[in-house]
Here is the input.
Amino acid sequence: MTGGTNPTPSDHQQGTLLTGGVVTLAGGVGAAKLLTGLVRVHPPRDQLAVVNTADDTVLHGLHVSPDLDTVIYTLAGAVNPETGWGLAGETWQAMEALDRYGGITWFRLGDRDLATHLYRTHRLGQGADLASVTGEIATAWGLELAVVPVTNDTIRTRITTVDEGEIDFQDYFVRRRHNVTVTGVRVAGLESAHPAPGLIEALTRATRIIIAPSNPIVSIAPVLGVPGVREAVAARREAVMAVSPIVNGAALKGPADRLMLELGHECSVVGVARLYRDVAATLVIDEADAHLAPDVEASGMNCVVTHTVMNGPEEATALARVVLGQAGRGRA
Amino acid sequence: MTGGTNPTPSDHQQGTLLTGGVVTLAGGVGAAKLLTGLVRVHPPRDQLAVVNTADDTVLHGLHVSPDLDTVIYTLAGAVNPETGWGLAGETWQAMEALDRYGGITWFRLGDRDLATHLYRTHRLGQGADLASVTGEIATAWGLELAVVPVTNDTIRTRITTVDEGEIDFQDYFVRRRHNVTVTGVRVAGLESAHPAPGLIEALTRATRIIIAPSNPIVSIAPVLGVPGVREAVAARREAVMAVSPIVNGAALKGPADRLMLELGHECSVVGVARLYRDVAATLVIDEADAHLAPDVEASGMNCVVTHTVMNGPEEATALARVVLGQAGRGRA
Here is the structure.
């Protein structure tokens, strides 16, 4: 890393943003995996993860931030490796007991995971902002990389379905397992949201901005959509490297592929390039899509071909080296 | 039981009040024990428990109703027999995980108990009133006796302490283990609270009203203090039987004895009689206090002497027979 004004450890606090270094725009599982690689190849104290909160929800009165928790649990080495979310070794006494009442159990909150939501809700109720609380939670898990929600304001993805009209994101994503036909996506609250304190400055001064291999429609678009963020990222376009979440025409996880198609995008690395070309100079695509590299470049982005599927820490680390420019680049 | 208009089972629903039968004014553990006896000797569908909510609290954003839960868990046979509150066989994963964040763990919420608070908070958030939600919870536990909060409105006991001024009830009761000097007790919200729907009618038509052996200051006084309740109970004074929570000058559980003394009451069955004589015709006292029966009567109440300490279901049942007038009464 060059050009960053790296803070000394004593300067660094969770919840405060850096004035240099690496900034990653993040959704959930895919972003969390890449971040585990990034912290292995670049000092975590010189990094910031900016996380989507448009899929946050209030359940049972508790403020649940799925993407923030996935990023934090994963970086803490505490995530459930089977699912990519939730805590390893979790117990489910509360959910089982909730069944007695016919309560909402389709969104599974483990007993230990509940503590995170209890704490977050308590602190928000005290008047703390989400960025501060997120910093406290990340610190409690021993994270050195800073984690912030993209905004302290409430933004919520709403999904318009053919059969049921507009529904909440988690209703779509978890309850219906994204197995419905979508005709539209909007993010309520986005136009009046403010970027997290210091976020615009961090983007302005970052030596590298990474768009993680997250869902472009429901994870990255809300992050870029907070007023000021897209412009700040676009102003640094040459320093921005996006990783395609689409490999061989399909999403590795979740509904990105289906959503892209239903909303009129080409479901390929070329479709991803068209979504990101205004904000990112370079798209990292998987070797499986090497033959599409010319089309990516024709659409206006530089293209890096590498192995992007992260099945373990080694692959995450190798991909991190690529996105940080520490590995050889090459056109296919 | 005579004179009650007993509903048939099909008429009866949790959350709806009876138009006859036995009404018990209840706090937590002591009341719950007596109720286990009452449902053994009188049809539970002909009974209503009216429960204090002035020690309800919001923790981590969750609405916690300690007395309601103690009554319901106890009647369901699910209460922790060691403590008299909480669930038997409980696990504590959420509280242990909350320690990581330095969250509030002095008020222990077990994993399965949490489900009750999650459900209650969810339903209140949907706009349901506390009486309706309480009925749903009681029904889920299979209770036939109707359980209602004394009011759907928010009432909260505040404790004035010598050292720290006014504090919340649970701060006093749980966090400080009521080990502080109290100079005053008030119930915020009481003057504008309304009795639970149907409560006044239930009191008016009850064949027997029982004041459970609960704390007169912080459990029964808030129940009687909801506007209209004291008057409705006093109007039925001849049908009202109170059980003294003070035995041999001490409370069996909790701070009733210390509170009575600090607030200027005599800490004895005679002190209890002076608190209840305007609303209840009869006070049931323990054999240990038999020598004070004349003083109780001199203070204006009939006095029944019996074994009032309930260490198990047999003793609760025997006491229930006495308060229902199904056992011989006698002066000491």
Observations:
- Chain B is about 35% helix and 20% strand.
- Chain B has a mean pLDDT of 92.
